[in-house]
Design a protein that fits this description.
This protein is mainly α and 241 residues long. The chain has a single domain, classed as Hypothetical protein af1432 (Orthogonal Bundle). The protein contains 13 helices and no strands. Helix 4 packs antiparallel against helix 13. The two termini are 31 Å apart.
């Protein structure tokens, strides 16, 4: 059984000097050694492992929270954040925070998380709770990185039309960073192999994203994403599994 936990006290100790400035992100596979902000990320991840050392499968943890935050979703998030005009220091935080968006899946049973078929109604309710579990795990931090990670973890499955979860937020009620991660999370998921599905063709993925403009996704951010799709495709190719 997964134990209830919060990272706040641990993170406050680790980050007592504040989050240092990171190097520029989105230079796929060309960045130098990781910067101090990434070291903080690693320490936070190590603390999660220590808290759950008796009940975590490390392979599954690697899927939920990458061992280093150089992964497609972080790259996509930072790229889209920059294209949306976020300041560079905020893009750097988004790069790291977005890697923790599915932290709450630690609290979802493997029988649901790895099920090779469609979830039933009861299982789907449990799966949706990963947003709240993740947010609660990151709650009450004094630091911007963890505050942003909490916001994204809770709201990345909200929908522009208000039919998302867990809070039914609508439009600009949804934090902008969560709206960004929502698009790139869906983009990556559709292009990826899962226990219950094969990767979808690239053109079909784009068509679905277009069709969800102003429904699931912020229409302005979708337009920016599609206008720069060649760059996202380059990241997908460079970081392909």
């Amino acid at each position: 059984m997964i134990k209830e936990f919060t990272l706040t006290d641990f993170v406050d100790v680790i980050m007592k000097s504040g989050t240092p400035k990171a190097t520029k992100v989105n230079q796929v596979k060309t960045r130098p050694d990781y910067n101090p902000a990434t070291d903080y990320y690693k320490k936070i991840r190590d603390l999660i492992i220590q808290i759950h050392k008796d009940d975590l499968d490390i392979d599954e943890l690697n899927k939920i929270i990458p061992s280093v935050p150089e992964n497609k979703k972080s790259e996509y998030s930072a790229l889209l954040g920059r294209k949306c005009g976020l300041p560079e220091d905020h893009v750097e935080l988004l790069y790291l925070a977005s890697a923790m968006h599915d932290l709450g899946k630690i609290g979802i049973p493997d029988s649901i998380l790895l099920k090779p078929g469609k979830l039933d109604a009861e299982e789907w309710i449990i799966m949706k709770s990963h947003t709240v579990i993740g947010a609660q795990s990151l709650a009450n931090s004094r630091f911007r990185l963890i505050q942003l990670a909490e916001s994204i973890a809770r709201s990345h499955h909200e929908r522009w039309d208000g039919n998302g979860y867990p809070d039914g937020l609508k439009g600009v009620e949804i934090p902008m960073e969560a709206r960004i991660v929502s698009i790139v999370d869906s983009f990556d998921a559709m292009l990826s192999q899962r226990p219950y599905k094969k990767p979808m063709p690239f053109d079909e993925v784009l068509e679905i994203i277009r069709s969800e403009r102003a429904l699931a996704f912020d229409p302005a951010i979708v337009d920016i994403f599609l206008a720069n799709i060649a760059e996202f495709q380059s990241v997908a190719t460079a970081l392909s599994d």
